[in-house]
Amino acid sequence: MALDRSQVPDVQNGIEYWNTQPASYDGVLDALGSRLFLLNLYPELCTVPSSIRPLNPRLPPRTRALDVGAGVGRVTSDVLLHLVSDVVLLEPVGPFVQEALTRCRASASSTPLPKGHHPWKGIPDASKSVTLLQGTLQEFDPLNPHRVTFLDRIGFQPQQPSDEIRMGFDVIWCQWCLGHLSDPDLVAFFRRCHSALRDQEKGKSLIVVKENLCSNNKDGSACSVFDEQDSSLTRSDMAWKNIFMEAGLQLVTEKVQEGFPSGLFVVKMFVCAKVGEEEKIRHQWRIKGSVTM
């Protein structure tokens, strides 16, 4: 389906829509099955004795993840902090990122947490960290994050924080937010993410994309559907694969997430890696088998 010029995401319209939504765990979509999915792709991140964890995991001293379009921090708190040392959280919507900031700061405080809040793993003892940024994906460069607003770093504090800026990431997580980028903006964003993946000698590095999918056109070609309410695009499977190809990303694996009510868009997870890493991860995925999501 060809889109006209009026059917292109407008970042400000999207932010205005999400400003009307509740900044709570109930107001954002769940991260069901994501931790297990990532562990099966990257078993070195397993922190407890397990059949999936290598005997001698090859990891940098501190592992790093980037959570973009992070909302109130659910993926950061429920998935990434359980598996990596340091998370950088980026969210453009003010009420959402302020809620994430409140929850993270509360985890570091000695005062009791509000009812329904749980401490973010590794934050109370400062063994892990979360850096919170506010800004849009269109203006964000993971290796040069100076065009977005720094809010706080909570938890572990390195001796030289500036040394981390160009360190890169082991995992870049993009969940239910990329529909707010036009195709050219999305390709440009993915290229910046590719540059921010850590070098192969420092271990594997992955980009995870979790998004709703519409159907391809009847002839199998790419299709996109524009939602005027929140100014976003829902892309088809072929549309995503065309974007990955244009951005120079290597698609490693893909999986439809089960368990959602009928009548909703299909939810699919795509995993991309640096050139040279994709065959290693595909082989590992075949050995581990499919994951029940």
3D structure, described in words:
By secondary structure, the chain is an alpha/beta fold. Helices cover 25% and strands 21% of the residues. It contains seven helices and ten strands. It has helices spanning 11-18, 34-41, 74-78, 94-108, 183-196, 237-247, 278-288; strands spanning 64-68, 86-91, 129-134, 149-155, 171-175, 206-214, 224-227, 232-236, 250-256, 266-273. Strands 1, 2, 3, 4, 5, 6, 7, 8, 9 and 10 form a ten-stranded mixed β-sheet that branches. The longest helix has 15 residues, at 94-108. The radius of gyration is 18 Å and the shape is globular.
List keywords for this structure.
293 residues, alpha/beta, ten-stranded mixed sheet, 21% strand, 25% helix, disordered C terminus
Question: What percent of residues adopt helix (DSSP H or I)?
Answer: 10-25%
| Number of helical elements | 7
Number of strands: 10
Distance between the termini: 31 Å
**Uncertain residue segments:** 286-293
Q: Can you summarize the main beta sheet? A: 10 strands, mixed
Average pLDDT works out at: 84
| Class of secondary structure makeup | alpha/beta
Question: What are the secondary-structure elements, in order, as H or E?
Answer: HHEHEHEEEHEEEHEEH
User: Given the C-alpha coordinates, what overall shape results?
Assistant: globular
What is the gyration radius calculated from CA atoms? 18 Å
Question: Into which percentage range does the β-strand content fall?
Answer: 15-25%
